[in-house]
Amino acid sequence: MAEEASSPTKPASGKLLIEANVGEGFWRKGPNNTLPPPDMVGPYMRNRAVPVEPVEGRKAWIIGSGIAGLAAAFYMIRDGGMKGEDITILDTMNVAGGSLDGAGNAEDGYIIRGGREMNFNYDNFWDVFQDVPALELPEGYSVLDEYRLVNDNDANWSKARLMHKQGQIRDFSTLGLSKSHQWEIVKLLLKRKEDLDDITIEQYFSESFLETNFWYLWRSMFAFENWQSLLEVKLYMHRFFDAIDGLTDMSALVFPKYNQYDSFVVPLTRLLKEKGVKLQFDTRVHDLDMIEGAGGRTVVAIRSERGGKDESIAIGPKDVVFALTGSMTEGTAYGDMDLVPVLARGNTEPGEDSDWTLWKNLARKSPVFGKPEKFYGNVRGSMWESATLTCKPSPFVDKLKELSVNDPYSGRTVTGGIITFTDSNWVLSFTCNRQPHFPTQPDDVLVLWVYALLMDKDGNYVKKPMPDCTGREILAELCYHLGIVDQLDEIAANTKVRLALMPYITAQFMPRAAGDRPRVVPEGCTNLALLGQFVETSNDIIFTMECSVRTARIGVYTLLGLPKQVADISPTQYDIRNLLKGARALNNNEPFPGERLLHRLLDKTYYAHILPPLPEQEETIRERAEAELSALLGKGSQALGTVFGWLDQLRDGLRNISK
Q: Per its UniProt record, what InterPro entries does this chain match (predicted)?
């Protein structure tokens, strides 16, 4: 009897590959492959798999209560059939949410270490939150319902995305790319991922590229430093290629009503607690005891410190463990209006009392756990600082109103995302999201967020690097770039500033090579999955809530033996419409080379609508198309007339077929 043929989703062994990878081959339907395409999303992927193994008697331990840990608990209950009381989440802090934070009050000042720009195709993230009861809407509605209600009725966009010259809006209507800059992007998109190990952004792109509108928009939106990973930039370009035409005015983004903690952590933890999930705080896990045998590696105990005392948690033969590796916000140093943050972490070693310790100890056991030092070992390269402003009416608020899409007190979109000062020595940005940003925020208070990328440059107004500044001095630098520094005293009297200096906030972007990050379930691990921003997935990016949820979903399905696949990233990057409109956006909203030829070919056919509209009248399209073809074939070429005759014949034929 012939052996069953293998496929990208079902190898010859017959074991289902939980994590789909469209890069290993695309779907070709046949009797040996019963699964949909590896990057298919939608209702067909909403099936609930029947567990292969019973969950009775099984317990789960989750190390870290960020969105990845919370999502792991959610998937074990919803898809794995586990009871909530059999799941325990351990965390160093005394509040859930990890890096998704939001705290404070109007008197002392609010604080949010970071914000989240979100996209329509966060398929795993929305898969969770379509089943999480809404924060404020009545019973029966979900967080997704709530999110759509806000964003469908309040479009996001920015009218002041880039600024310079102390208060002037810089022209950001196009990406500002020359033909050579466009070619740099195209070549990067064509490169194989495997060819970009340890290459930095500035090693690849030209100096002039790094001064374009595109790069100011891109680096400030995603927080890339020029010395960081070119591979990650490439992955981001593929992930968000469908949104590139909305990059300038940020119309491609959607934002929550409130800060990330209240919008997502509060409703999800509320659901998990109702299901019986236990959260144990003040517990720092520093190692996992393992036994090895028959090519497998099994966790038998969790080593931790709780309340200053060592503690060991025994892991049963059926139990599973999920662990966060590394932390973006570990070692955050705080400051305020008059206090400069004092960083406790060294440049190359975070110390044994850090959230990196567990990963370091795992890496000592086997190369399958990666190389954490590639990410934590250069604080100067991964650090930046943010400031949260709690503002009462002042000349600062008056200036904000000029730059806002809607009145800041209206509850609607305000700045539509960050505003970046392109002539700032710090590459300073600020944003005001919908207000109130906290559910109990007073009506006369606004909460804004400020951050900068460069930590080693003196400010343009305050002649110090940002980490050496108090909140008052950072406020002064911001007011200088807004052209209102002469009113600083009145502004400061009505503003509270709280600071967060984060040594590892972009550690996940540091240059890396294959094997530096472990897989979600490292080779040989029988009951351990790794979660968060420092693990490897097939094609997804990092520094998003979506990728954290993806790692949780892959881990749960794998360890619980659920016969269900986690789809690869949304296939929007392959959609010909996105490729065409992306090419137009990269060409500064002008028709890209050859676009008029495509119009000549497809005009009046069913497929005409896939092309962006041309700016010219129809009678001039042929002239422009001829000019394009002349540039390709040479003026006076005999082929020119032949090709146009062929195009006309083909178009007439297509038109007749479509009738």
A: FAD/NAD-bd_sf, Oleate_hydratase
